[in-house]
Amino acid sequence: LAGVTAISLIVSHLSGKSFWISFSSSLDVFWLASLILYIVYRARGHSLAGILLLDCGPNRTNSYFRLTAGLGLIIGIWTLVQSISNGEGRSFTGAFYWLTTSVYFFAMSYGRLQLRQNGIWQYWGLLRWEDVGAYHWEGQSLPTLVVIVKRRLWIPLQGAMSVPPHLKQQFDNILREHVSSNPQDTNNEVKRG
Description:
Layout: H1 2-15, H2 19-48, E1 52-58, H3 62-86, H4 92-108, E2 112-116, E3 119-122, E4 126-128, E5 132-138, E6 144-152, E7 155-162, H5 168-178
Antiparallel strand pairs: 1-2, 2-3, 3-4, 5-6, 6-7
Helix pairs in contact: 1-2, 2-4, 3-4
């Protein structure tokens, strides 16, 4: 946000337009760039994922993603109509935000948890095997896989994902071929399966 503000100040100064119009335009560009990066990241992950080893199905909350996408679409269209009828250029930023947010959540609603040849497809992106340091399981009735990602710089990262109980053993067998299950060992060499 600080970067968008700085760019807005520069654009406002050079163009002679008000700061708020420059800020709205900068937010539009930033949000569009973010959406494009997300789509490119997701497409790149799909191209690198390799063959499907195990499909655990969609995210349990995908109906909420679709609901959010639908609401975003309705609000975006309503805001766009209001902007056109009022002739306010600044209001286009709100419409643009809601319409692109709708696209994002619609794409998220089609995510699936999958084990692929080259890593874990975690609903929206690929976590490559070489980036997984270790993992462990939590919960019995709804098993939750906790993945410890190898450290990048000084930031330790971990994430959790629910696995259907009837697929836990099969999921675990495939994971063991590629990753250590010792959560203390996050700098291990990844075994190739």
